[in-house]
Every structure is written in structure tokens, then in C-alpha cells.
Amino acid sequence: MEWEILLENVLNALAAGITIGCIYGLMCVGLSLIFGIMRVVNFAQGDLLMLGAYAAFYLVAAWGVLAFLGPEVAPFAGAILAGPIVFAVGWLLHRWIVARVSGLRTVASLDEGHFGQLIVTLGIALILQNGGLILFGSMPRAVRTPLSSSAWMVETGIGDATIFLNKARVISGLAAILVVVALYWLLERTRLGKALRAAADNPTAATYMGIDVDRAHRIAFALGSGITAVAGGLVASYLSFTPFMGLDFVVIMYAGVVLGGMGSLLGAFWGGLTIGFVQQISALVLPPQLQNAAIFVVFLLIVVLRPQGLFGRSAERA
Amino acid sequence: MLDIEDFSVAYGGLRALSGVSLSVGEGQLVAIVGPNGAGKSTLFKAISGIVPPVSGSIRLDGRDLLSVPPARRPHLGIAHVPEGRQVFKTLTVRENIEMGAYTEAGRARFAQTLERIHELFPILYERAGQLAGTLSGGEQQMLAIARGLASAPRLLMLDEPSMGLAPAVADMIFERISQIHREDGLTILLVEQRVAEALELCDRGYVLETGRIVLDGPFQTLINDDRVRRAYLGLGD
Ligand SMILES: Nc1ncnc2c1ncn2[C@@H]1O[C@H](COP(=O)(O)OP(=O)(O)OP(=O)(O)O)[C@@H](O)[C@H]1O
Ligand SMILES: [Mg+2]
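Predict the joint structure of the above. Result:
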């Protein structure tokens, strides 16, 4: 029956949208963390995601460091481990480069240092892309797992309609949620997290409390880099990629973060989830080349109708 | 405890402080008064390290403070309650107080200081879970002071705690400051526009005008000085 096939397609697109959306949500959270705490718009975020994908690739496929975990577990362990590796990269990038155009020295200046930050993060993006090309080569890579070609089947009970849940994506989505929950806990409950939020809220007053704001920013930049890198590692388990993958994903991340309301962490997650949804649903009716166009139409609609973001409260930051 | 000598600060080319010398003894309450733009807040910012000096020295218990990075200074026992309160608006009242206790000393004594804070400002206990940005001006001032106390400081610096408050609330704040000074024996450096109240509380006062100390001395000297009576207290002729 025709409508059953349609229903099945829609349900499967929804399921794919949720799982992919969770991964998008995770990468958006990394970007949002950096913006929310440092007020730095990081154009290199997509390339940090790319580093995460390659970190997982080398750990799992090329060097096989994690091979002992078996082909089912290793890709996800690789994605999680990409976090601390790119955390370290972010730490160094901040220490050597980003700190020079951000932090306490710029909060007092008129444009808050945004011009310098724009140029510097764009520069980092170019360096990472081309450095990636030299180091990793242009051949598309993938982190294969048998799970990416098998699915859990869920009978809907409506005729023969069945939802196929791609195992790799479901596990990736769950891992993404786990990382977001852990980060949320860190920010809300721990002394470090509260100090990061205080440094974001009022850098001068934070200094009066004895909080080293520049160090807080370094931690935020490194954490945001690591979080997005985990998302990159998870993407690598279902998609092949090159050193330029960041260009596609930075668009998704910005759309998601703006949708969710700039600076709101959970908002960023919902924003990313929404993008995943729109992308998968649009795949039902649009050719693949137009999927990004669909994202932007929805994006523009929401920005026009709700400029504070889908999930943002307009007065969240006074 | 705090000794400032021949201290100068400039913004760009403009001198905001020139040759200021000032000292605060252990257990004292020292007041600094002066008109708008005299450089009072600038002096506090220099003590906290967020504006750099041109020349001069600041010592805390004989130790050179200027070589200590700004974020380390609170850990040495300096609490700065800034002008305009500057509470963390997106954090709750309780989280603001916890951030006050970011110093080692503050953390070690958190339970006692929290109890004391709630005794001084019971409203902060009632509002513990509320975002600080939604507090009234008076409540924000209480929170700013509480946050300073939470660091278990040796020196509490208060920059115009009565600014923009209704008289009754300002009186209450003064009463609490006096209480903190008397009962807890805390050393306090106070900047105030409400000169009469400030001088009444203090052991020693300084009058700062356009970046210079023009007069200093114990409470009795200042309150009987003709210039002070005329310019700040609106008395005599
Ligand atoms: N960031 C700055 N850049 C340039 N000039 C400044 C800056 N901050 C303060 N000033 C100038 O330094 C002088 C002293 O300012 P300060 O804020 O210390 O005065 P104040 O005594 O605290 O005044 P008020 O009682 O109004 O708070 C003023 O002339 C002010 O314009
Ligand atoms: Mg002032």
C-alpha cells in the first residue's frame, strides 16, 4: 500500500534525523561553549571537527591502536579519545595564538577584539585545512565498523511499516548525548564550571574573585575544541571525509548555534538536533544537493520569526 | 597592613592618580572620600591590579603587591567589592557567594562565613536559588558585600556601597559594614560619597581630589576641618 511506504519513509527519516541530529547537537555545543564563555566567534571549529575525525581514523584504522577492542567498539572509543587529543590541540592553539587577540586584554576595547579574532580564527582554519592536506593527504578516509551496515528493526505495528535504526548512528547519538550531559554537569555543578560561567558573565569581577580569566578561556577553548572533535570522531563512523570536511560542518554548526540562541549550551544542542531533522526530512523530497539549501531556508525562517533563536530567551544575557 | 607609597596611575596620557600615599593598619576602617572623578575607583582597581601603575609601590604586609598577578591577589586576602556591585547576573545568589569563596581561605571557611552572611543578610538566604540579575539594587549590593566576605579576606575594599540606594537601605548597609568591622574585627577600606556616614564610621580618613590626597587624619581631625565641613558636609561657612 502506498501510504504505508510513505509512512515508513517518514518514520525512518525521523529516526535518522534524531540520531544524526544528536551528533550535530554535540558539535554545536562545542562551538557554543567557546562563544558563550570567550565571546569569540571561532571560524576554525569545523577544522577542529576534522582533526577529531582524523584522530579517530588514526587510532582505529591506520595505526590500529584500538584494534584490540574489536571492530564494533573501537570506532566509538576512538571518537571519545579524539576529545582529549584535540583538547590538547585547542589548549596549544589558545596559548600560542587565540590568547593574543582575546581574553582580559580585549574585553575593555571598543570592538571587544572581534576583528582580530575573526582574522585569527580564519587563519587557523586555513592552516588546519592545508596542514591536514599535507599530513593526512586528500584521499577520502573512513572509520569502518560492521555496525554502520546493520540495523535494529523496530516494528511499528502499522501494517508492515518498519523503522530501521542504523546501529552505528544510534550508538553515536547516545554517545553524543552522554558527552553533552557530562559537560552540562561540569558547568552547572562543579567549581571549575561555575568559575568558567563567572568568567563569562563578568571577567573583571571574576578577577576580583581570584579567578584567572585567561586560564578559564583556555580551558573553555580546549573543551569546546575537544567536544566538537568527539562529534567529528562520531561522524567518521558513518561518513567518509577529507581534510576539507570542516567547510560543510561549520555551516551546520553556525546554523545550529544561531537557531538555539547564541551562548545557550542546551539551545545549541537543540539547534543542532533541529538541523539534523530538517536535513533528513528534506532528503525525502529533495535531491541531496539541495539538502543544505533546505537547512538555510528553515534557518532564515527561524531567524526572521524568532531572532533570539528557537530556544533562546531574548533577555538571557543582559 | 596595606601601604601605598607615592603611587601614580595614568589613562593614556591623563593622570588619574598622582603621588598618592596611604596606609591601612590591621583592624582599622579607613575611609576615602572625594568628588566624582577624583580617582577613588582607580585606586581600588590599581590595588586589584586591573589598571597598571606609572610609579610608586603597594605593599601588603610588607610584600610587594604589584608583582603579584591580578587573579592571585584575592588569594592573598584582598576582597574588592566594586563600584556598581558587578554581581554575576547569570549565576544564582548561592553561586555568586560560592565564587566569592574561590580563594583557598574562603573555601576552607565556607560553612562559617555562609552562616555569618545569612545572619547579616537574611534575604540572601531566602533568595539563594534566584538569578542575581533579578535581585533589586539593594539586594545586589548585599550580595556583592557577601561575595567579598565569602573569600574570608584580610582586607575588605568597598567602593561606594551606598550608591543608588534608597536612604533606608543605605543606612542598613552602613550598619552592616560597621557590624562587620566591630564584631568580626575585619580591616576595611571604604570609598564613599556619603561623607558624613563614612567619616563617622572610620578610624582614619583620606580626602582625595583630582588624583591627590589633599587631607588625611583621624576622624576627629577631619570632621572638624573647615574645608571638609564646607565642601562635604554642608556645614559652617
Ligand atoms: N578606563 C578609563 N579610561 C580613561 N579614563 C578613565 C578610565 N577610568 C577612569 N578614568 C578617568 O579617571 C578619573 C578618575 O576616575 P575614577 O573612576 O577613579 O573616579 P572616582 O573617584 O571613582 O569617581 P566616582 O565618585 O564618580 O566613582 C576620571 O577623570 C575618569 O574619567
Ligand atoms: Mg568611583
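Residues 314-318 of chain A have pLDDT under 50 and may be disordered.
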